[in-house]
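User: Could you check the structure of this?
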Amino acid sequence: MQLKDRVSIVLVGTQSPGNIGMVCRAMKNMGLYDLRLVNPCEVNHPEALKFAVSARDLLESARIFTSLPEAIADCEFSVATTRRHGKYRQEIQNPDEVVSRFASCPPHSRLALVFGREDNGLTTEEVALCRWQSTIPTGDEYGSLNLSQAVLIFCYELFRGTVTAPAEPVAVRELAGPEALEHLYGQMERTLLRIGFLNPQNPDHIMRTMRRIYARAELDEREVSVLRGMLSQIDWAASEFKGKKGQQ
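Assistant: Sure, the predicted structure tokens are below.
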């Protein structure tokens, strides 16, 4: 199976029907067919049909979801596209680097490219749900791209970097999927709150850093099990917890 055949394009909160139509056209131009829409505007709008042109079949087959976790639940590897940098948006790759990363993923894995709203992109929480982050380098004077333009650039890089699965079977390290990672992060947050490491008023501040650390580690299922076992032992050992260090 070719790399581009395993990639889903996920649009979150798209506001313009015309953009959805143009994304369908961009995808079909480059041989991608799996479009997923999270809480979109009206999909069967005349503008969407107009700009989809000969890619109306993609528009008609697009799947609609009510949340990003639901839309990428079957995607072992996902990339949040973002124009902004900051504390929670670091280690951002270029589109060609994303293609290289995708090409090194197990040959049966499902991959997702996630794009945000036209006016303000993806939220920090939505970015945190994805394994990696990527941006398209642009000029300093005006860096904002139209949604369909951004999708087209990523689809082109995928088309250009298309690879097929190796003919001979190779040993592939099975990485933990998004569901297993979310269970780990949930348990981690509960444990770290219990031992006073997280601020109960803002646990996400540190948990986003934890997510980045473990995203870089690219954990497999066994490693997730080991970490969850460690957290369970911490929970048990914390039965005599007497408060955060320095605040007794």
